[in-house]
Amino acid sequence: MGKLALITGATSGIGRAAALRLADIGYDIVATGRRADRLDALKREIEQKGVLCTTLVFDVRDEAACHAHLDSLERVDLLLNNAGLAAGLEHIDCGDTADWDAMIDTNVKGLLYVTRIIAPKMVAAHSGHIINIGSIAGTEPYENGAVYCASKHAVHAISQSMRADLLSSGIKVSEIRPGMVETEFSLVRFHGDQARADKTYEGVTPLTGDDIAEAIVWMVQLPAHMNVNDIVLMPAQQAGAYYTFRNHK
Ligand code: NDP
Ligand code: 8X3
Fold first, then answer.
1. Closest ligand, as measured to the CA of 180
2. Were 129 and a residue from 162, 172, 188, 197 both cysteine, which residue would form a disulfide, CB within 3.0 to 4.6 Å?
3. Residue 201, in any domain of the structure
4. Active-site pick, 113, 148, 201, 243
C-alpha cells in the first residue's frame, strides 16, 4: 500500500504543484479545495501517473465540513496544511474586517480544524508528517500586512508547539516559510486586480509553486531520524519582506 498525502488548497499554486510532485514519488493523494472543477482536472492529471487521487470539496473554515470530509480517512502519512490567503493590503485604520475574518478563519482556524482531525489518526498510527505552509510574514511583520502577518505568526507558533506536542508520538512537524511565490496569491490578495497582482513580481524572478514542491519532496524523503523543523525559501532577488532587488527596464 502506497503512502497517502492529504493536501489542503490543492486547486492552485503551491498545493497543486505539491500534489503533482508527491504523486511523482508514489504518494496517493487526497486533494482538497473549494473549486470542484479544478480538483477534477487535477485528479485526471494525477491518476495518469498511476497513483490514486481522491478529491474533497469543502471550505476549511467550516469545522463541520472538515469533519464530514476528513473523519473517515483511515490513514494519512503526510498532511500538507497549505490552504490560505492574504486578502487586502491596507493600513490598520483602513482594513476590511471581512478580509481579516477570511485570513484568520482560513490560515489559522482552518489549519487547526484539519490538524485536530488528522493528528489523532497519526498519533494512533505512531507515525506521520505534518508540513505547515507559513511565510516570511510569520516572522517579519510589514506595513499594510498586520492581519496576514499575524495569521502567519500564529502558524509559526502553532508549528513549534505542535512539533513538541507530537514528538513522543513519532510524528514529524515541519514548516516552510516562503518569500515571493508566483501563484494566484496576489490576484486573491488584490481581489482579482490582475494588473496590481502582476506588479508584485515586476523585475523579479519569483519562486514558483514547483520550487516549494521540490522542497516538500526532499523533506518527506529524508531518513526517519532527520526532520526539517523550519525552512525559509526565497527568490534570489529577495532578502526579506522589505528587501527586493528589481531589474529595471
Ligand atoms: P493560491 O491562491 O494559488 O492557492 C491557495 C489555495 O488555498 C487554493 O487551492 C485555494 O483553493 C485554497 N484555499 C483558500 N481558502 C480556502 C478555504 N477557505 N478553504 C479551502 N481551501 C482554501 O496561493 P498559494 O499557493 O501561494 O498559497 C498557498 C499557501 O502558501 C498559503 O497558505 C499562503 O499564505 C502561503 N504562502 C504563499 C506565498 C506566495 O508568495 N504565494 C508566500 C508565502 C506563503 P480554493 O480557492 O479552490 O478553495
Ligand atoms: C506571502 C509572502 O511577503 O507577500 O506570504 O507576505 S508576503
1. 1
2. 172
3. no
4. 148
Give the C-alpha distances (Å, rounded to integers) separating 89 from 9, 92, 185, 196, 203.
22, 9, 12, 11, 20
The CATH code of the domain that includes 44 is 3.40.50.720
> For residue 33, is it within any domain?
yes
Ligand minimally distant from the alpha carbon of residue 107: 1
Q: 95 lies in which domain range? A: 4-178+209-233
Show the low-confidence residues of the chain (pLDDT under 70).
Answer: 1, 249
pTM of this prediction exceeds 0.90: yes
Q: In sequence order, what are the beta bridge partners of 233?
A: 178
Question: Which atom of ligand 2 is found nearest the CA of 145?
Answer: 6
Q: What is the pLDDT of residues 23-71, one digit of tens each?
A: 999 999 999 999 999 999 999 999 999 999 999 999 999 999 999 999 9
The rounded Å distance from CA 10 to ligand 1 centre is 8
Residue 184: inside a domain, yes or no? no
Both ends of the chain: CA-CA distance in Å?
Answer: 53
Say whether 113 is catalytic. no
Atom of ligand 2 nearest to the CA of 241: 3
Number of domains, the chain: 1
Nearest alpha carbon to residue 180 among 106, 246, 130:
246
